Amino acid sequence: MCWAGRMMLGTFSILLVLVHAAAACDFGPFPYRATGIVCRMTKPAALLLNKETAQVIQAAFRNAKFPNITGERSMRLLGRVAYGLTNIQVNDLSIERSEVELKEDNAIHIAIKNVTALFKGTLTYGYAGAWFLQLFHSVDFEIESSIDLQLSIKLTCQKDQVVPDASDCYLTFHKLTLHLQGDKQPGWLKQLFTDFISFTLKLVLKREVCKEINAVSQMLTNFILDLAANFVRDKDIIVDISLASDPVIKASYIESHHKGLVLYRNNSSVLSDSVFSPSLLTESRMLYFWFSEHSLSSLASAAFLDGRLVLNLTGEKLQELFEMEDTEVQRKAVQMVFQGTSYNDSVAKVWSLTQPQISPQPEGTVVRSLVAVEVSILPAGEEPLVALYMEKEITVTIQATYEEKKLILQPVDSSIEIKVFKCTADPSGKDPSIQRFLQNMILVAGIPEVTSSIGSALTSLMNSKRLDLFDIINPEIITRKGYVIVQLDFGFPSHLLLHFLEKSL
Question: Is residue 98 classed exposed, middle or buried when 0-12, 13-18 and 19+ CB atoms within 10 A define those classes?
Answer without folding.
Answer: buried
